[in-house]
Request: fold
Amino acid sequence: MSKDMQLENEQLELSEILKIRRDKLARLQGKGEDPYAITSYDVTAKNADIVANFEELEGKEVSVAGRIMSWRDMGKVSFIDLHDASGRIQVYIKIDDVGQEQYENLANFDIGDIAGVKGTVFRTRRGEISIHCSGITMLAKSLLVLPEKWHGLKDTDIRYRQRYLDLIVNPEVKDTFVKRSRIISSIRQYLDSKGFMEVETPILNTIPGGANARPFITHHNTLDIDLYLRIAPELFLKRLIVGGMEKVYEIGRLFRNEGMSVKHNPEFTAIEVYEAYNDYKGMMDLAEDMIVTIARKVCGGDKVVYQGEEIDLTPPWKRISMIEAVKAYAGVDFDEFRLDHEKAREAAKSLGVEVEKNDSWGEVLNKVFEEKVEEHLMQPTFIIDYPVEVSPLAKRKADRPELTERFELFICRREIANAYSELNNPIDQKERFLRQVALREGGNDEASMMDEDFVTALEYGMPPTGGLGIGIDRLVMLLCDQSSIRDVLLFPTMKPKE
Reply:
């Protein structure tokens, strides 16, 4: 039989199965048992709790609800696996207990249906904790067929487009998102315990700012103006520091109109934290302690395994300047030709790193770091003292004004956090904005725009401040051992089907 004929036969077979399911629904509705007419069901126990507390619940009546995931019909006895949000439990249904009419009505049930079950808790002769059914009610009919259970749902395109299906047939997927929720909850608990206050800032901005990235643009009809989905909440949060809110944080969605990869999604979740009278060293301590605290709470210790390699989160973490890291891993000491732009470009070319003819010493240093060093940073490492050209919102180092008090935290060869001693000099800030404006006018649509109001806020006076941003999705990837950002986003961005 040709592949085309086989496919056609499979489609005809599937169509017949779908028709049968709709016929079953029609029969139920004809008997006045429309599952879609049921508005609630009294659930008295979760499956996992029954298993965990069997000795206390044995012989007692419970009411559970969930999805039928398997069925074993043995004539006058049936065994059903019922899955709820907590896990699975076996349901034992016997014709003598539920009556012939209700037992025959089981013919209208299918794998995938949502059912409510009442019965008593017992253990079978084989030792499995189960529910001895006294009544079963269909709560929703599954009109489509779930993927074949032995093979599961492996097609990643279907998994990401139809996450609801992925969650049904791949229990480990749900575990990842349960863990994600616990991680975010733990972050809030940690910061709240340290006296930080959670705030909310605008997602629709009149000026894109807070990071160098290409924004998404939308239009407000009433005001007849273009607005930008925020690429970072930084400038608003620092306005709050000016206003006297000394310890603030925000967890929320950010949007960047850039490429997609296993590390990047156009919308993602991040947290930004700001603390007055602190600096980037204080932010390093905060980031280290917070991530270790969360790992201990969610993963049970300081060591986690990521893609087969053990990551040791035991503090203190390594701290090394960008210049020292490039020297160690690329063999070039950028201090030897400090601020000599031409020699910096020549050094980069000798390493096979492409640079532009007008790239400055600092821009070249950063490019060499990204291409030659990041791939080596598997264990937790703070890279500190970034060039001023790539850090438009960070405070300069007093003894090295071409560098800034900034760090990025790398774990598993990718950036997890970014932080700096915030620039609070309004004159310097305006000059850096103007440099960004020039870059933008030169064709760099990732460069920042001038934010006059933010400069005005700084002119009123912002105290010395430390700021920290952490990519929540990448942190979840690390702690859940997931190699792609799409596996930690419930609904990743997907190209529409043609």
Observations:
- Residues 3-30 form the longest helix (28 residues).
- The radius of gyration is 29 Å.
